[in-house]
Write a sequence for this structure.
């Protein structure tokens, strides 16, 4: 599939070769339970703890604050349901792993509105916190998975802490694209996952401030210091650790490179289609993400046509059983349904190339209504 322009890194970024090799080596060399006290178990545990240290460094914290999970969704669910706060405030543009969990399973949940760029309304957050004496958990993601919008996490933390609330930050989409710093941000909980940074799928982590209680969703053994039962996925953890190392080493060069591709793509689509709207363009954004509309052409039509042309992207809205639903993210930003259902997300990653932009533009420009009519 080397001829495919893979531009869907916000869904999953392909595993790096070093990660694949490390996972294979771990499966061959340490196929033992890290809780076992014999030499094989100790070797497996040593690899787990080395990876924990690498992941902690990427996140700006200490290894003891890292709890491994089966992925980002599990990490988010565990915090929302296990942090001991009945009241949960969640931003309107959160990933569904946070938004749905809070709204469906929390005892008392409120949605924090965002502005037309997708940035949380800080005054609204303070007002919501002031409406109740019930200690709250505030959930705001570091970076949006659809638009790339970056949230002012330190300011959110100050408002929340002044009101006696805890803060959970889903940083899944931010890692590998911007600096992620659990300690500097001051958050109480944070989530990451391996497959967004070139690591394996099915492995994630919770970062927890020392002294805070966190009830495990999975009962059983005492793994992860009682915060997550179940035998550790040694190979996936090792791969996650290698990916974290590579991200930390390359971020200074990879982020500007992805931004260069994004900016080149956006400059060309604006020239080709004057009606196109680039969402969150006036807010701080991830360097790799662009979400934009093509009025008159449904998102699913664009995705399928691009796929046939060898370009892999995602819709800015979800398709279910043939029905196109407006994105809840764009809806929260005030984007009209007839526009949001024409949105497309392009996201670059560690192995993206300039030629990917060219291939996308060549395929996408044929979908522009006025150009398609001319060609016909």
């Amino acid at each position: 599939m080397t001829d495919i322009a893979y531009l869907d890194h916000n869904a999953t970024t392909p595993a790096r070769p070093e990660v694949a090799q490390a996972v294979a080596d771990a499966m061959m060399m340490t196929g033992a339970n890290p809780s076992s006290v014999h030499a094989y178990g100790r070797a497996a545990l040593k690899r787990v703890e080395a990876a924990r240290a690498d992941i902690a460094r990427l996140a700006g914290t200490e290894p003891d604050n890292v709890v491994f999970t089966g992925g980002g969704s599990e990490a988010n669910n565990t915090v929302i349901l296990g942090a001991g706060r009945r009241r949960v405030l969640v931003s309107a543009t959160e990933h569904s792993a946070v938004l749905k969990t809070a709204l469906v399973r929390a005892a008392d949940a409120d949605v924090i509105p965002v502005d037309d760029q997708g940035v949380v309304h800080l005054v609204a957050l303070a007002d919501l916190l002031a409406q109740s004496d019930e200690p709250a958990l505030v959930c705001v993601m570091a970076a949006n998975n659809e638009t790339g919008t970056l949230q002012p996490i330190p300011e959110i933390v100050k408002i929340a802490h002044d009101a006696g609330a805890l803060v959970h930050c889903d940083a899944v989409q931010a890692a590998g694209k911007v600096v992620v710093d659990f300690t500097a941000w001051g958050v109480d909980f944070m989530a990451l996952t391996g497959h967004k940074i070139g690591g394996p799928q099915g492995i994630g982590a919770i970062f927890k401030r020392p002294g805070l209680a966190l009830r495990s969703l999975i009962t059983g053994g005492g793994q992860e210091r009682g915060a997550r039962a179940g035998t550790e996925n040694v190979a996936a953890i090792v791969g996650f650790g290698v990916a974290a190392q590579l991200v930390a080493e390359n971020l200074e060069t990879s982020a500007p490179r992805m931004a260069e591709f994004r900016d080149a793509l956006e400059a060309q689509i604006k020239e080709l289609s004057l009606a196109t709207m680039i969402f969150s363009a006036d807010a701080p954004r991830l360097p790799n993400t662009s979400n934009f509309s093509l009025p008159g052409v449904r998102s699913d039509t664009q995705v399928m046509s691009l796929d046939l042309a060898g370009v892999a992207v995602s819709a800015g809205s979800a398709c279910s059983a043939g029905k196109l639903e407006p994105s809840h993210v764009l809806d929260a930003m005030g984007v009209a349904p007839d526009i949001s259902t024409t949105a497309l997300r392009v996201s670059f990653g560690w192995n993206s190339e300039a030629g990917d932009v060219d291939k996308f533009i060549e395929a996408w420009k044929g979908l522009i209504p006025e150009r398609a009519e001319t060609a016909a």
The two ends are 31 Å apart (CA to CA).
